Amino acid sequence: MKICLIAEGSYPYVAGGVSSWIHSLMHAMPEHEFIIYAIAAERKQQGKFNYSLPANAIEVHEFFLDDHLYEEAKSGKRYHLSDVQRNSLISLVNGSNNVDWAALFQLIRSNHFTNVGEFLSSKDYYDLVEDLAKTKYTHVPFTELFWTVGSMLLPLFMLVRGDIPKADIYHAVSTGYAGVVGALAKVIYNKPLILTEHGIYSREREEEIIKAHWVKGYFKDLWINYFYTLSNSIYTLADEIITLFERNKEIQVELGCDPEQIRIIPNGIDIHDYRHIVRTVQDDTIRIGAIVRLVPIKDIKMMIQAFALVEQQLPNVELFIMGPAEENEEYYEECMQLVQLLNSQKITFTGMVNIKEYLGDIDFLLLSSISEGQPLAILEGFACSKPFISTNVGSCRELIEGRPNDPFGPAGFIVPVMHYEEMANYIVKLCLDESLRLEMGQNGFNRVSSHYTRQAFIRSYKEIYQELGTVR
Question: Rounded distance, CA 172 to CA 97, Å?
Fold first, then answer.
């Protein structure tokens, strides 16, 4: 069977998290062939993979969201849109869930479009923005609205006009642009479409846009609603929607998913991969770790602030932040500047490393994200009997405290998002209590061994592929 995995901003360019999940899935299914449809921000990322592809990954189809910068166009054309096409475009920029995606795809891929830039220089596009200006943005400069809407639509239209590899099943690992590609494949080829949503993509984009400096205040709602609308494309067209935990399912239902269509399949890990990890250093230093990409959504600054408070109270602590910094070098520099400003002496940024070489000597781990799905980092820590202190995002509370009727005790502590003082207090508590660290670490190991196995995770997806792949 040939399966097309559609990923945005992750595999194979970015290590960890969703990328590790994709890599593990392919390795576990040598009986299937996989095509990777990889969506990245910039063409300069082309071919710069962080993974050695498995033998059954037969193709990587790359798409770059900045490709629209290279298009040229003539202005003033009239496309003579039908009412359905015009209304779908209006719904798309209005943030409505009433987009007729099949009609929109047909329009964008039709021969009427010589290129995308030409449409965004057309009279039809001008009319579209004028309608938006009159109905929703009456006090916003028209030229700003005109260029803002264009910057939203350009990468989307380029994506829709692109080639879609042929496969037996299409499997998007997020909504957003990846979800649009999946929906487009469904419309073109009428093949089974699966969505696995690790975190809630539209919520994550909302959080980023609220904080973003590049979006003017009066356009933030325009961008936020736009990403919710994009997500709706695959919510309405997917044959199977998979999420990782109950709270994610509740949010998906709030956003318009049919609850009967959603299946919960947790992430899984093979604890046997970690059985050789042992402590190699015997001293009184408490070593704290973080397995994390250095990007704003992980809120590394909060972690740094918390550790700086701990460092003032305890002399024998070290923090190892283990993960790549290349994805957002500007944010990495800001983190380094914060370390210097707080005069922290015992924080080490390791860069991309084999975490198994560090975990044996780590006493416990931290996660300070403002948004997560079901972090593999926590499962990896639990597989080594390491407790966690985490912000209350995604399924972190469920992982650390257990689901209802879970027989195991807490495997760490949960703190509010951005509350570095409370995180510092719990760090000190664990640093001073070795027996508590050991007890919580054992609880985490028992929980991951019982409820989050790689065997169960892979078996579930094999069954889904087999079920959908034999229908047609």
Answer: 20
Residue 52 main-chain phi, psi, to 5 deg: -85, 115
CATH architecture of 2-64+163-264: 3-Layer(aba) Sandwich (3.40)
Q: Where are the domains of the chain?
A: 2-64+163-264, 83-153, 271-452
Q: Are 397 and 324 in contact (CB under 8 A)?
A: no
- Spell out the residues 6+ positions from residue 405 whose beta carbon is closer than 8 angstroms to its own: none
Record the tokens describing residue 322, joined without a space: 């283990």
Please, which pLDDT band fits residue 471 given cuts at 50, 70 and 90? low
Reported pTM: 0.90
pLDDT above 90 for 56: yes
Which pLDDT belongs to residue 88? Answer: 86
Cβ contacts of 348 within 8 Å, gap of 6 or more: 318, 319, 320, 321
To 5 degrees, how large is the angle CA 369–CA 373–CA 377? 65
> If you average pLDDT over residues 358-373, what whole number do you get?
95
